[in-house]
Amino acid sequence: MKNGVCPRCHAQTVYSSEKIRNKTGNASTIPLSFLRSIPLDNYVCTNCGYVESYVAEPEMLVHIKDIWSRVEPDQTNPQ
Ligand SMILES: [Zn+2]
Questions:
Q1: How far is residue 36 from each of residues 19, 30, 66, measured CA to CA in Å?
Q2: Per-domain residue ranges for the chain?
């Protein structure tokens, strides 16, 4: 989706909150723990409404690995 193409409807109508993140003060976040939340960059397709979210601060990914539990891949049922 970061390449500007919607993975669902394949339209080239993807808009991102990345450039306005600092101006909006991280309007979109997910909780890391009860003390901290992680800012997200959202990508929205204005054709079908599909949304993808990415952690905006790559250094936070290691904290997620420390705190959250890993989802074990289900070999019998991909996706
Ligand atoms: Zn779409």
A1: 23, 9, 14
A2: 14-67
- Predicted TM-score (pTM) of the model is 0.74
Q: How far apart are CA 29 and CA 45, in angstroms?
A: 19
Tens digits of per-residue pLDDT, 17-73? 887 766 655 568 888 888 888 889 999 999 999 999 999 889 999 999 999 999 999
Q: How far is the CA of 44 from the centre of ligand 1 (A)?
A: 8
Q: Tell me how far the alpha carbon of residue 57 lies from the centroid of ligand 1, in angstroms.
A: 25
Taking a 5 Å cut-off on Cβ, the residues next to ion ligand 1 are: 6, 8-9, 11, 45, 47-48, 50
Centre of ligand 1 to C-alpha 78, Å, is 23
